[in-house]
Amino acid sequence: MELLAVQLQQEAHCTISDLAAQFGVSARTIARDLSLMRDQGMLIDADRGRGGGVRLDSNWGVGRMNLSYSEAVDLLISIAVAERMNSPMFLANLGSVRRQLVASFSPEKRNRVNRLNSRILIGVTASTYVQASVASPPARVVQTLHRAFVDQERLDITYRREDGQTSRRSIDPHYLLLKYPVWYVVAFDHLRQEPRTFRCDRLLAATGTDTPFRLRPKAEFGASLVGDDLLV
């Protein structure tokens, strides 16, 4: 029924016969699904008469978006970054959106979000030299880093240094640091047995290990956390 709801939202006018043909089912099945959708509270309009169409009210779905924990966290981070950039455009409602998102969490998840937010830091804007060399890391690397950061799991990476040399590292991603527009991961490096900072766009590969780690005291990371204004 989700696909049917999406189709009804996208199309201004659909007939039951058209929908039946599109989804490869009978018109009776479509009619039954529409009835079930109405029972679930969806606002479905129908035109009377032969050839009449059905449509989902354009306002349906506002306030009904279901986000997973990780998706909600991503949205909160994006809102916080936008607020921190202090742009006067399009920020009027971000504070309200953020408060509603946080309020929708259970107390336990709210605490998790607060702890996670304390590990996402804002530093000074990157120099023009650094900005000139920044690139987008592979999507798969970003996703793996994101999961390891949120779940506090050790990460195996292949990293390219500024001189072009590559190395394999095993890191615990403690903090993410934004020096706009460049993201860094501040981690405990098991190869060097000390904290190190890695530019996210120089991560060539990343593999999760499913090995959890405990957060080390913030004081251990010292100069790596320069400019550590909290996002939220």
TrEMBL record:
What Pfam families does the entry give?
HTH_11 (PF08279), WYL (PF13280)
Keywords carried by this UniProt record: Transcription, Transcription regulation
Q: Which GO terms describe its molecular function?
A: DNA-binding transcription factor activity
Q: Which residue range or ranges hold the HTH deoR-type domain?
A: 1-55
Q: Where is the signal peptide?
A: none
| Classification via InterPro entries | CBASS_pafABC_assoc_protein (IPR051534), DeoR_HTH (IPR001034), HTH_11 (IPR013196), WH-like_DNA-bd_sf (IPR036388), WH_DNA-bd_sf (IPR036390), WYL_dom (IPR026881)
Taxonomically, the superkingdom here is Bacteria
**Record's protein name:** WYL domain protein
Q: Which organism is it from?
A: Antarctobacter heliothermus
Task: Cite the source lineage.
Answer: Bacteria, Pseudomonadati, Pseudomonadota, Alphaproteobacteria, Rhodobacterales
